[in-house]
Amino acid sequence: MNKKIAIILAGLVIVIGGIFGIMKMTSSNSESTTIKSGTFTVGLEGTYAPFSYHDDKGKLTGFEVEIARALAKKMDMKVNFVQSKWDSLIAGLNSKRYDAVINNIGITDERKENYRMSTAYLYPRAALIKRTGDTSLNSLSDIKGKTMAQSVTSNYGKKAKAEGANIKAVAGIIEAMNLVTTNRADGSLNDMGAFENWKQSNPDADVEAVDISKEMGSTPDGVLMNKDSKKLQSKVNKAMQELRDDGTLTKLSKKYFNKDLTKE
């Protein structure tokens, strides 16, 4: 009888131990701040210079690529990049393909209702891009009734639509510039830094840009994360503040934009 009791008790100990092991593992997983422990997985386009693009050797680089790497280093993590077209970037975040999107994402009230966003790392300048010499497009109000090449889910696309423009959907600035230069669109709203970078690669293109930052206002850029990523948001914000304090943000902005756009 004593032997049977001992066997039963031993079995109970094993079962209880297994239960606690599972509970501990579940707890550990629930506390993980990223999809893959120790890795900061970032979604971006990889075709949007100077934010994220491939250099002459095919290496992924750019302002936001370097920011992502710097953030990961501050958080003592590795960084992994997942490239996707703009219109599917946020869908990828929703399906947890990556932990965050760092891709010129404006911090808006609408986004903060559905996602978590970091503190700002960039205050971009808005540009109205048009064919050289087009006197009909000089200000934001002039785009009403015009055909504008825009990424429909971007801040610029939404603004163009709100101003009464006819929207011709594109995947990004390269496609937008193709439509403008071939007279299939009147213009495009985009980031001035992105346009200047594109113009450097296409110096003979018959297009120019008007700075409309004052008219549009400055929507700062931040890191976009899922609503349940509270701990990750806290870590990213801490790391971002460190990058601001040690001058990294300013250094990167001057490197890619020739000026400090990290302050309002």
Topology:
Elements: H1 2-31, E1 39-44, E2 53-54, E3 60-61, H2 63-74, E4 78-83, H3 86-94, E5 100-101, H4 109-114, E6 116-117, E7 126-131, E8 147-150, H5 155-162, E9 166-169, H6 173-181, E10 187-191, H7 192-201, E11 207-211, H8 213-216, E12 224-225, H9 230-245, H10 248-257
Parallel strand pairs: 1-4, 1-5, 8-9
Antiparallel strand pairs: 2-3, 5-12, 6-12, 7-10, 7-11
List keywords for this structure.
264 residues; alpha/beta; D-Maltodextrin-Binding Protein, domain 2; 2 domains; five-stranded mixed β-sheet; three-stranded antiparallel β-sheet; 10 helices; globular; signal; Solute-binding_3/MltF_N; Cystine transport system substrate-binding protein; SBP_3_CS
Strand-residue proportion? 15-25%
* Unreliable runs: 15-31
**What do we call the CATH homologous superfamily of the largest domain?**
Periplasmic binding protein-like II
> What letter string, H or E per element, gives the SSE order?
HEEEHEHEHEEEHEHEHEHEHH
- Helical coverage, percent range: 40-55%
Keywords: Signal
Family: Belongs to the bacterial solute-binding protein 3 family.
Subcellular location: Cell envelope
Domain Solute-binding protein family 3/N-terminal: 39-260
Could you walk me through the main structural features you see in this protein, from its secondary elements to its overall organization?
With 264 residues, the chain is an alpha/beta fold. The protein folds into two domains: 39-123 and 221-257, D-Maltodextrin-Binding Protein, domain 2; 126-216, Periplasmic binding protein-like II (D-Maltodextrin-Binding Protein, domain 2), CATH 3.40.190.10. It contains ten helices and twelve strands. The protein has helices at 2-31, 63-74, 86-94, 109-114, 155-162, 173-181, 192-201, 213-216, 230-245, 248-257, and strands at 39-44, 53-54, 60-61, 78-83, 100-101, 116-117, 126-131, 147-150, 166-169, 187-191, 207-211, 224-225. The strands form four sheets. Strands 4-1-5-12-6 form a five-stranded mixed β-sheet. A hairpin with a 5-residue loop joins strand 2 (53-54) and strand 3. The longest helix has 30 residues, at 2-31. It starts with a helix and ends in a 7-residue tail after the last helix. Residues 15-31 have low confidence and may be disordered. Belongs to the bacterial solute-binding protein 3 family. Residues 39-260 form the Solute-binding protein family 3/N-terminal domain. Keywords: Signal. It is found in: Cell envelope.
